[in-house]
Amino acid sequence: MLPTSHALAAVRGRLHAAVRAAVPCAVLIALLGPAAHAQTFFVDAQNGACSNSGPGTEAQPYCTISAALAAHKGPGITIVVKPGIYREQVTVPASGAAGLPFVFQAQGPRVVIDGADDFANVALWTPSLGTAFVAAGVTWTPKQVYVDGARIAATTSTPDAMPANSWTWVGGTGLIVNLGGDNPGAHETLVGRRNYGFNIFSKSFVTMDGFEITRTEDRGINMQNPCSDLIVSHNRVSFANSYGIQTVNGQRIVIDGNTVSDCNFHGIGLTAGATGCIVKNNDSFRNAHPTIRQANGIYLFGAPGNTISGNKLHENQDTGLNFAGSSNDCICFNNRSWANGDHGYDHLQTTGTIHVNDVAYGNVMDGFSFEGDAGGAQLHNCIAIENGVTRNEFDLWVDANSSVGFVSDHNLFWNSGPQNPIKFVATQYATLAAYQAASGQDAHSKQADPRFVNGPAADFRLLAGSPAIDAAASNVADWPATDAAGAARQDDPLTPDSGEGSCTFGDLGALEFVPPPVDHAPTVACPSLVKTSKGKLVTFNVTASDADGDAIQSLVMVPVKMPANSGATFTPNATNTGGTFSWAPGKATGTFSVRFVAANALQGSATTSIQIAAGKAKATSGDEGDPAGVPVIAMSQGYPNPSWGDVSFTLDLPEASDVDLSVFDTQGRRVWQASRSFGAGRAMLSWDGRSTGRQRMGTGIYLVRAQVGETVLVRRVIRF
Ligand SMILES: [Ca+2]
Ligand SMILES: [Ca+2]
Ligand SMILES: [Ca+2]
């Protein structure tokens, strides 16, 4: 039943009362708008005027992030951090609000939150046993020690027996490091101390952007149970002793555009109920656990309903993108996963994963692996090549249980060598056709070299002629309308469209092929018909243009049908974009024509017809007039001219004739000669700019001579 207006008013009244009584402060701030309460504070460790007692202006900033946080936190607060080394752990003390986040903004590169302390000072070290030194100031148990940019190994040996480049920590003594004799303080020695760069428990609407977080003893960015609506963007996280970035049970966390490398566990992790998260455009590589092959570029465990797109995942110890533990119904597109120690994409006890336009290249094991009850997956527009070739693994591997509900089409699978590209249920398939027949899948897929620009160098753009061009299905769930670089789909006019759906020219893989620009021929504009009467000067203008803006190298007149030695001239301007035709036809009458040819890499032309009536001029002069319009021997100017290649001429012949064509240089030497026979009418002559001995002639002026019986016609051409 519809409520009456009276009832609606009552509801509104109750709502207003409820809002007045219970609306949280953050919501009130949001209602008032960001301008009213947004405040920015500055942190700058390198500013001599910095003070941890404030006020946090740009002129007198805080020295540490922690001091700024202690004074200012919550919705609408932005903490701007300037370049410098910050040896502190940022524990986020408050949430932001919807539309009014609590923001940590690194300003510029090299805003470093370092988990290690600096021990590059010889005074901090004293000799220990053997070649080892001890730093008594290390009163905590470190987990990582770095010397000159590299982790050195922990050892359990006694100080007198430590291998070179190792460390151990002894309670009551300190950190003992053996560099084979050097004082560690004379090197860039850093000792792990703090667990996290950013540490966030149960907060929402917080943004962390642009930081470099390194050498943390645990996660670089640690988002623990349950955070929501956080944004982690454009950070550089490296050398964490655990995950680089992890959200445990996070809701709607956005992890965007981060670089995560050299961590001792997964690069990016979504675990324990994390859902509604977006992990996009990250570069996660070279993450490796110290002892067991298990570190992934991106790892999901028990994390359903997330979107993973546009990521680059490579050289990780284990898999590029790994789904496990019922990380069901995730969507993946535009990812590239290559050169990882295990699979490109792995699915274990995880159902309903959708892959669209993902690339797996050169992973040690399978490219796309669906095993262990990973049913209901979809694979569309993906490319998997050269995976598992040294381990008898496959570009695509679907086990029996995972084949239930599996849907796959418009993909490309290929190996350059003999390794079978596909294993489906229990059978390896050397050919796509055999797999198609057995599985009923991949009817529109291909087994062909995708022609990457440079696969081994991870350049997965497509070369012209790639079978991946204009071949994708756009009518599949979650098809990306733009590629991994954000580029729109483009039609390659040289490739027939074989895609499906509303866009039939999308490409397979993560990067859309960009067709080379089409070169348009110059266009020439001239009058199509000029009517005049006997004895009058014929003159008109001609213009030429190139739609691409290319320079026009020549604009010439070609007499199509003109009296011999007509005296007609055509004078182009300096840029060959226009010119003037001029002809005093004397006694000629009848219909004539001239063509104007503009040339650069291509040629365009247009023709003018000239009709000269006998009428008035004939009446006044009484002359008989020439036999105008009767074909005579006539040769056009060369075109294009100047030219770096072929130069062509037309030759009008009143009857079948033998023609001697010769080319002379300016010193009168004949450099080329040919004799031809032509029928009556228009003949085409050309010289390719080479000598009789096929040598390419140099730049300069040449004279092209056509001899027809007693008639000799000479035209001048310039080679450049
Ligand atoms: Ca395309
Ligand atoms: Ca096309
Ligand atoms: Ca052009």
Can you tag this structure with a few keywords?
720 residues, binds calcium ion, single chain, twelve-stranded mixed sheet, Pectate Lyase C-like, 6 helices, 5 domains, disordered N terminus, twelve-stranded parallel sheet, mainly beta
Taking the alpha carbons of the first and last residues, their distance comes to: 89 Å
Mean pLDDT: 91
Q: Could you say which structural class the secondary elements and strand pairing correspond to? A: mainly beta
What is the 3D form?
elongated
User: Portion of residues in helices?
Assistant: under 10%
Number of helices: 6
The gyration radius over C-alpha positions equals 39 Å
Strand order of the largest sheet: 1-2-5-16-19-22-25-28-31-34-37-40
Polypeptide structure, described:
The protein has five domains: 24-115 and 197-260 and 268-280, Pectate Lyase C-like, CATH 2.160.20.10; 116-192, no CATH class; 319-516, no CATH class; 520-630, Immunoglobulin-like; 631-720, Macroglobulin (MG2) domain (Immunoglobulin-like). 7% of the residues lie in helices and 37% in strands. The protein is built from six helices and 60 strands. It is mainly beta and 720 residues long. The termini are far apart. Strand 52 and strand 53 (603-613) form a beta hairpin. The longest helix is centred in the N-terminal third of the chain and has 18 residues, at 5-22. The protein is elongated. The strands form nine sheets. Strands 1-2-5-16-19-22-25-28-31-34-37-40 form a twelve-stranded parallel sheet, covered by helices on one side. It has a twelve-stranded mixed sheet with strand order 4-15-18-21-24-27-30-33-36-39-42-43, with helices on one face. The protein has an eleven-stranded parallel sheet with strand order 3-6-17-20-23-26-29-32-35-38-41, with no helix packed on it. One calcium ion is lined by residues 519-520, 546, 548, 550.
